[in-house]
Design goal:
The chain is mainly alpha-helical and 107 residues long. The protein has a single domain, classed as Methane Monooxygenase Hydroxylase, Chain G, domain 1, CATH 1.20.58.80. It has helices at residues 3-32, 36-65, 74-106. Helix 1 (3-32) runs parallel beside helix 3 and helix 2 (36-65) packs antiparallel against helix 3. The radius of gyration is 17 Å and the shape is elongated.
Amino acid sequence: MEATEIQEVAFSIILESGNARTFVHEGFKLMREDAFEDAEAKLEEANESLVSAHKVQTKLLHDYANGEDVNMDVIMVHAQDHLMTTMTIREVALEMLMLYRKIEKVT
């Protein structure tokens, strides 16, 4: 796989995970406003973007597993970091949404 192809894959992962991160932060804002259904919808939008990024990543891993030479560079490392961080922040957001809903029932 050529360097330009790796860069395209990396930027695709960064774009999709960046979109997902934006949706997660919008979800946090909606949680603070007690708009839980809307927050849940934003977190689902985030998941859709993460699934898109993960598909790109999986294809790259599949190519590598099939013996294709895949040269990693700094931008791909950054893309992987961006994706994993966003996946983690979404998981935290889902837990926070559950907690916000529990707090609302108690108060």
